[in-house]
Structure formats: C-alpha cells, structure tokens
Amino acid sequence: PPLADPYGSELAAAFFLHDQTVWIGAMTALQATMRSAQAGTRPSLPRQPFRWGQVHSAPAQLDTAPLPLPPSAGRPRMSPCRAEEGGGAGPQRTLPNPFSLPVMDDHGLDLSDENVLQLKSLRDSLERRDSPFLPTNNAGGGFVGDKDLCLLNTMVFEGPHSSGSSCQGGIYNSDEEVCVPLPDYAIRSGPRASIYFQPEKVTAAIVTCGGLCPGLNDVVQNIVYTLADYGVPTDQIFGIKYGLRGFYDRATKPVHLTPDIVDGIQLRGGTILGTSRGGADMKEIVKRIKLWGVNQLYVVGGNGGNAAANAIDKECTAQGVHCSVVGVPKSIDNDILLIDKCFGFETSVERSQTALMAAKVEARSTRRGIGLVKLMGRSSGFITMQASMASGVVDICLIPEVKFTLKKLVDYVTKIVNTKGHCVVCVAEGAGQDIAEEMAQEQAHNTGADASGNPILRDIGLLLRGVFRKEIDCDLKYIDPSYMIRASPTITTDRIYCKVLGQGAVHGAFAGYTGFTVGLVNTHYVLLPIGVIIQAPRTVDPLGRSYNRLITAINQPSLL
C-alpha cells in the first residue's frame, strides 16, 4: 500500500547512518523506497547481512541524483554538529550522498569567529606537523577538523512561557542572577590530522585538585595512555603530588607516570596523586613549569581547579612560557556551566541509592519513623534531585535552589508521617543555608571559609535532625554517606566518560590549544574556554523540566 509518510522510518534511520562505515547497499535500497513511495508503491528491502565496521564498495548502479527532501530538510541544520568539509586530512573514503542533505555546507548559517567560542592557541609559537596517527587514518576512524562545530543550544522554544526557556541562548550566572549570552557554536573535540607538538619533546604534568570524586584515577590513567599513544616518552610524563602545592612543596616530589604504573588504577577510589585545596601560588607554579620544561599541563579539578588552570595559563603568557594548560572538569556536584555532566556524577547518584534505601527501611520499620539523608551539593542540587527521582522512596527533596521555611517543612513532614506512618527526607548540603545562617547568628557562631575560598556550610542535616526531633513525635535516623560516595570507584558509564575526557584533553593539547577544558555539551564532546565555564556554579532551574518532574512525581508542594 502507499506510504502514509513517504519520508518514514527508512529516511530517519538514514539520517543516523552517516558514518563512513555506513552500508552503501542500504542507501541504494532507501533510494528505491523513497522513489517508489512517491509512485504509490513500496518495494521490499534486500535482506543482506550487515556488520558495523565492514566497509562495502559502492554498487555500480547507485544513483547519486538528489532526491526531493521532506519539508523539514529545508531547515538550515540537520545535525547538532557541523562537520568540516572534507572530514579532516588523511586518506579518506569518498562516499556518494544520495540525499544531498544540507549538513556539510553553511546554508546561511553564521559561522563567523564571533559566533564560535574561540580557543586560545599556541600555534603561532609552534611548528605544525603530521599526526602520528595519519598513516592509519586514525585506525580508520578519520580525524576532527578545526571547523567542526557543535551547537551550544539545540532547543527552540515556542515562547517565554515554555518550561526551561528562562535563559535561552545563554548560560545562567547564579552569582549575579543574570543570563549571559553565548555564541551559537563550540569547537568539536577529537584528534586532528595536524599536531603542533613534537611528541618526543613533550614533557607533560598531571595534577588533581580539590575534593575527592569518583573517576580521578580513570582520567589520570587515560591521559597517560593517550600521551603514550602519541609517542611521548614515558619518562617525560609526571604526576604532581597532593594538588597544586606539590609544584613547590619541598616535602613532595613529582612522580613518573607510565602505562604500567597506571594500569588498573581505575579500579580504586580516590587519586593515586593525592589532592588538596588551595595553596596555588601562580608565579611559583609557572616558575617550576619553566624550570622543569613542562609544555603540557593537565589540571583535573572542579570550578576552583579550572579557575587555577586559567590563572596558570595567564601567568604562562605573562612570563612567555609556551605551555598548553588543559582543564578536565571534575565536580561531584555536577555544577560546571555548559557541560551536560561532570565525571563522577552518575556514580554519585548510583551510590546514593544505598543510603536512601536504608533510610526507607529504617523509617518504615519503626513507629512514626523518619529517614533523613544528607547528600552533596554546595550550590547545586543535581545529585539530591536525581537520586531522589531514581530511588522512588523520597517524600521530600530539599535543594539549594529552592527555599523553604522550617514551619511549612515541619508541618508537611508531620502530615506525611500521620498519613503514611513514616517519611523519607533527602536534603542537599547547601539547602536551607539562609535558615541555618539565621540560627547561627542568634548563637553568634561564624564558620568562615575553607582553603579554596568556599564558605564553610552550616550542617543543614544536623539542624533538621534537631528540629524534627523537637517538633515531631517521631523515631528519626540520620544518614550522611558523603565521604563513602566520594571515595567510590566509578560505575561503567562514568568509566567510559572518563576515558573520552582524558583522550580529548590530550588531543586538544596536541592541536595547539591552551586555556581550555573538554566536556560533553548536548551529547557531543567539545572544547570550551575555561573562562566561560568558571563564571558561576551551574544550578538546577526551579522552573525547568527536571525539577518539575521530581516534585510532580512525589507530589511535593511549595514549602515557602
């Protein structure tokens, strides 16, 4: 029978089969399907075996004439990423394009430098050379081009009333409560056909900063592996001990990192290099970089660590030191701007389930039981929100972005206990700080700041424990699993993510860039200027879909 939609599932599938290893026979069959659809018939597709990675030569009868496109094809974009024409340098397999899709050319798009997040480059001071992966065309996978761009914003909202549209086309600076506009595109991460460092002359240093987070060892391991793959001598890869102070602390010395040394470290929690907060004397650090001949520095850290990397990069420029400074975004709170997720976040959400399930068991096993769990989240409630959503046992979720009053909270907890017989409350460590601060001032108590300059938070978990026990007839159990979660090894998804981040960091450095970080944006890996992502913590949008899904799932009312 005639197709109801002549551009149905076959065409949709073809849009995704755009890799160079695509089965050409599928294109031929698809052409016949589409042409027959317009004639009112539907041919059967050939049942031929297909294996990913198997490259077939183009059939002689393949028709490369352009086909009429569906109405949506007239839009300027067919993909969130724009590939550089030619697909990068090196040996290429030229495949016919039976659809003539408007993906590989501009079609009126603004691809000017002003509309792309520009990266700082050392290329003018370095010599361009072929990648060591060029002879094999990067093991058959090809290369990424400097003009490969990814959209930073893939959403088009109907209007300002649409959920999540409060900062369309920009990033929300929670510190200043403003929406900062951004260009449309970021440069794609990946291996280039041309590199700007001679691998044999690279001296690389790796340092981990800030608090522990699942995945630190994974990232260190894959930076070392990728450096070795480029041909960097293994006796020229160093690890800096115990954070940035390890550059100039006489009690600690750098350690050699080789593929053999880092083999298996992904199975452990923590970091084999050690870590610390603060202690960043930029002039002393750059002095050691120059003295030791380091020309690639990898800083694995959160907002503070990336801010330090940005400062080191600026000081290198000021002192005329040619060193590519690369940040790898580590934040257990998932609070780095623009990036979809930080490594370790999914592991933290998964490990949080054990505490929440224990709280549920404890609460329902006693008369008028309350299970209170405090999770990480200084400025952002992503872990608390996602863990609560995933567990299905949380009755009340409190995050830093949404204020509440103690009276309404106590009244609602009491209502749940009276109705269900028990209640589970999940609170982020940064939630309710205004309430905790007010109570502390009444007691003339000041907590100060930590070594990284972050304000030391009031313990909202202990505060709520005391309030609930005082105001509600209950049997309360309080669980704080924070340090157990931080020390965990990664789960599978984070382990894969860490591999890609470690590889992307090294690829970006060899491409001659500096002062950048690598991360996942709209499901694509991109290189981002560090200065953009450290403006403020990324926070949960109280009016966005994610938080709305949670509160509607658990029927949580406003507690303000």
Overall mean confidence score, pLDDT: 84
Helical stretch count? 15
Oligomer: single chain
Shape: globular
C-alpha end-to-end distance: 59 Å
Unreliable runs: 1-31, 41-79, 86-105
Structural class of the secondary elements? alpha/beta
Question: Largest sheet, described in full?
Answer: 10 strands, mixed
Widest beta sheet: strand line-up = 1-4-7-20-19-13-12-9-10-11
Indicate the radius of gyration in whole angstroms: 27 Å
- The helix content, as a percent range, equals 25-40%
Strand content: 5-15%
Count of beta strands = 20
Your description of this structure?
- There is one protein chain.
- The chain is an alpha/beta fold.
- The chain has helices at residues 9-16, 24-39, 216-230, 259-262, 282-292, 303-319, 345-364, 382-391, 406-420, 433-442, 460-471, 482-486, 492-510, 530-533, 545-554, and strands at 81-82, 120-121, 129-130, 149-151, 170-173, 178-181, 185-188, 194-195, 204-208, 237-240, 255-256, 296-301, 324-329, 369-375, 396-398, 422-428, 475-479, 513-514, 516-521, 524-529.
- Helix 3 (216-230) packs across helix 13 (492-510), helix 5 (282-292) crosses helix 6 (303-319) and helix 8 (382-391) packs across helix 15.
- It is globular and about 70 Å long.
Helices and strands, with pairings:
Elements (H helix, E strand, L loop, with lengths): L8 H8 L7 H16 L41 E2 L37 E2 L7 E2 L18 E3 L18 E4 L4 E4 L3 E4 L5 E2 L8 E5 L7 H15 L6 E4 L14 E2 L2 H4 L19 H11 L3 E6 L1 H17 L4 E6 L15 H20 L4 E7 L6 H10 L4 E3 L7 H15 L1 E7 L4 H10 L17 H12 L3 E5 L2 H5 L5 H19 L2 E2 L1 E6 L2 E6 H4 L11 H10 L6
Parallel strand pairs: 9-10, 9-12, 12-13, 13-19, 14-16, 14-17, 15-16
Antiparallel strand pairs: 1-4, 2-18, 3-8, 4-7, 5-6, 7-20, 10-11, 19-20
